[in-house]
Write a structure and sequence with these properties.
With about 260 residues, the protein is α/β, with parallel strands linked by helices. Helices cover about 55% and strands about 10% of the residues. Strand 3, helix 3 and strand 4 (about 100) form a beta-alpha-beta unit.
């Protein structure tokens, strides 16, 4: 379990039924990830499955966004995913293993006021496609998990802000629903066991994949209708990093 929130990782590791290792690691630091990979090999053996799950998000208009905060989201969500794959790829090549990249509905269709998150998740999807093509002949499988709204502290935090609450409220009813973490985890476990090329949670997202070319015009029509009202209500402020993970990343990035 690699991440910035060491006490929470330790608690989770202690609660698991099999031996687990928690390592405090920043995915934007290749040297730290290499050390974490080395410690994993020493303590648990060679990994045969790697899940690239680290991610941060914030909301607000691009024009007034903090350039450093915008870039940090891309660094964590996209570059951090690549660093994770790089650190563990020797193990996956040796074990003919499986790499699962956690993507998002945002990989399929971009939304306003979430430009860094959408750009980084679309990039993570493209990176996973490219990596799959490079390593398939070596026996390594690469999957992409497309997830909608999951009941995490990131999403609960987002709902406190009118700009993001409105974004979700104007989606079609099935797309507004949040899904329990345990249910999503079970779907991801099955995807790993079956070395899936793609997994969609909820399953209807595969239909969005088929019709993704129609999403930008639909989002544009909705934005032209709703954003003037949000601007008039002064509801388009910036959220800052969302959830405990976002706050932990800000602390690590600033050295706080």
């Amino acid at each position: 379990l690699l991440g910035l929130e060491k006490p929470r990782l330790d608690a989770l590791a202690a609660d698991l039924p099999t031996p687990a290792l928690a390592v405090e690691t920043d995915v934007t630091d290749p040297a730290a990830l290499a050390d974490a990979a080395g410690e994993t090999r020493r303590r648990l053996g060679q990994p045969s499955v790697v899940v690239a799950n680290a991610g941060v998000a914030h909301g607000g208009p691009f024009a007034t966004s903090d350039p450093a905060e915008w870039s940090r989201a891309v660094e964590v969500n996209l570059t951090g995913s690549a660093h994770t794959a790089r650190a563990f790829l020797p193990d996956l090549l040796d074990t003919a293993g499986y790499h699962l990249q956690i993507a998002s509905l945002a990989s399929l269709g971009a939304a306003p006021l979430m430009s860094a998150y959408c750009a980084s998740k679309a990039g993570a999807e493209a990176f996973a496609h490219s990596l799959r093509a490079e390593v398939a002949h070596r026996g390594v499988a690469v999957g992409i998990a497309y997830l909608n709204w999951i009941d995490t502290d990131m999403i609960r935090d987002a709902d406190r802000y009118p700009v993001l609450r409105e974004l979700r409220a104007h989606m079609p009813p099935p797309a507004r629903r949040t899904f329990p973490v345990d249910d999503v985890a079970a779907r991801l476990v099955r995807a790993v066991e079956r070395r899936r090329t793609a997994v969609y949670v909820p399953g209807w997202l595969r239909l969005v994949q088929l019709g993704r070319a129609s999403l930008p015009p639909a989002v544009l029509r909705l934005s032209r209708r709703e954003l003037p009202r949000l601007e008039a209500e002064d509801s388009m402020g910036h959220t800052g990093p969302l959830g405990a993970g976002g706050r932990a990343d800000r602390a690590a990035d600033t050295g706080a």
